[in-house]
Amino acid sequence: MSIGLSERAGAIAGSATMAVSSRAAELRAAGHRIVSFGAGEPDFPTPGHIVEAAQRACGDPVNHRYTSAAGLPELRRAVAETILADTGLTVADGDILVTNGAKQAVYLACMVLLDGGDEALIPAPYWTTYPEAVRLAGATPVTVHTGDRTDYKVTPELLDAHVSPRTKVLFFGSPANPTGTVYTPEETRAIGVWAARRGIWVISDEIYQHLVYDGAVARSMPAAAPEVAGRCLVIGGVSKTYGMTGWRVGWIYGPTAAIKAAVNFQSHMSSNVTNVAQVAAICALRNGRPGFDGVLAAYDRRRRLMVNVLQGIRGVDCPTPQGAFYCFPSVKRLLTKSILGHSFANTAELATFILDEASVALLPGEAFGAPGCLRLSYALDDQSLQTGLERLQRLLSSQDLPRAHVH
Ligand SMILES: Cc1ncc(COP(=O)(O)O)c(C=O)c1O
What we know:
The protein has two domains: 7-45 and 291-397, Aspartate Aminotransferase, domain 1, CATH 3.90.1150; 48-286, Type I PLP-dependent aspartate aminotransferase-like (Major domain) (Aspartate Aminotransferase, domain 2, 3-Layer(aba) Sandwich), CATH 3.40.640.10. The chain contains 15 helices and twelve strands. It has helices spanning 7-11, 18-29, 48-58, 73-87, 101-113, 129-136, 156-160, 185-198, 221-224, 256-269, 275-286, 292-311, 332-335, 347-358, 382-396; strands at 35-36, 96-99, 119-124, 140-145, 167-173, 201-205, 232-237, 250-253, 326-327, 360-361, 363-364, 374-377. Pyridoxal-5'-phosphate binds at residues 40, 101-103, 127, 173, 177, 205, 207, 237, 239, 245, 250.
């Protein structure tokens, strides 16, 4: 019987990745040595100088009090300087809002842009939060399916096929989660110009901007297409670049009126982001990225290893990602086979099977709007990566012969 929760509460989907995560936790508790390719976060700790800045901040009573909902002025300044250094764009401190991680920035962007009846174009595979944030704002997510043949990229032509008079927003992410796709500056520009011509807002999620390989360049949307800057909200943060996922510091910047509205929302929802975490973020942004080249080289090495192993497994098609820290292979051919006598209706079943049989946790494509694919994070130590890939290779190589060939 219903206990009378809101329609909104009924409409929000739980995380589709939860089934695998909770099964992994059960197996771990039962003593299994699980290798997890599930995590969407760096495996290295927050650098010591950042932690020390936070420790000092804890002792300062100024940080024990409420501060401006928009963020500490010094952090907004540091973010503006970082944007200038990274993209060449000059952004006023007042056009930046410090948020509880980039995730809250996504939510706020939807709240200030979308009304009931509006549509938001979301290229798939997508980060699982986007459609939920659109629904929470009362609007309708419209999935734009891409494929591995186009490196999971949308093009103006593909967007044309999905746009309607109700389209208000386009989500854009480069490098993207879950595919690791990086748009070239020209491709980014083409998408931005497409949106600008139609008066459509772009929410550009640039949280993975520093995680690029093979010389790929992830140009910021308003830098690539200044035409759309007046209708573009850019999302960033310290989580992925500085190993600071748990500190919860992100930001959003864009046109003054939109940021003012987002500040108002945040002032009623959660007030300021934890001061100590903001001080840590100031330290992160003000001190460059010591050691980051080494981190990037480690990700790059792991990326190559993972792609090589996956490409060598029959039935697995793995494009080479150029950014973030995920591989997103298609296993559609594998789904038509059986493995050790088991067959699979979808990748959720396959992921559970892999977890049970090989003690390897990975995420099903359904969670990202891309049935038939799996997401594997390579942000884990070399030894675990090697072990996990060996287990996966062994299990997936035990494919049974198709029925017609069994005599
Ligand atoms: C594409 C994308 N945007 C935003 C976020 C959220 O980052 P944060 O930890 O700063 O909230 C994530 C985290 O996985 C992500 O993958």
